[in-house]
């Protein structure tokens, strides 16, 4: 499954309109980096992808099993280390509901099955062209 997003950045420093189909978001940089802080910065968007995909994947599984879980909370901290070419995602998942140890163990495995998690832990290739 391929997705296409388009980013458009004019002369307003770092204020970028990003579209995917009929949906649009704004990205920007914080004020201390020259932006206006009017949207998520690109690293926040990357962390958001993992957090939201994890939550959705867990919700799908929980609904299929008909478990009583009111809320799924996923917090992702992304720390980037450009000098060592390493990034560390720390993912903290909590549930509001009644789950036993076996269910939690299964949900741990399901969290790692989210499509974004799989992409981030596989080989990644970026092909660039100018047009």
UniProtKB/TrEMBL annotation:
Gene3D superfamilies for the chain: 3.30.300.20
Entries under Pfam families matching the protein: OsmC (PF02566)
Domain of life: Bacteria
Entries under InterPro entries matching the protein: KH_dom-like_a/b (IPR015946), OsmC/Ohr_fam (IPR003718), OsmC/Ohrsf (IPR036102)
PANTHER family in UniProt: OSMC-LIKE PROTEIN, PROTEIN INVOLVED IN RIMO-MEDIATED BETA-METHYLTHIOLATION OF RIBOSOMAL PROTEIN S12 YCAO
Protein name in the entry: OsmC family protein
Organism listed in the record: Chryseobacterium pyrolae
């Amino acid at each position: 499954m391929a997705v296409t997003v388009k980013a458009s950045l004019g002369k307003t420093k770092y204020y970028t309109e990003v579209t995917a189909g009929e949906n649009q978001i704004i990205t920007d940089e914080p004020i201390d980096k020259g932006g206006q802080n009017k949207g998520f910065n690109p690293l926040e968007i990357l962390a958001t992808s993992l957090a939201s995909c994890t939550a959705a994947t867990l919700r799908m599984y929980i609904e299929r099993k008909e478990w009583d879980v009111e809320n799924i909370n996923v917090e992702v901290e992304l720390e980037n280390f450009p000098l060592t070419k390493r990034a560390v995602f720390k993912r903290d998942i909590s549930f509001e509901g009644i789950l036993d140890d076996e269910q939690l163990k299964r949900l741990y495995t399901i969290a790692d099955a989210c499509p974004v998690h799989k992409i981030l832990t596989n080989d990644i290739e970026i092909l660039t062209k100018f047009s």
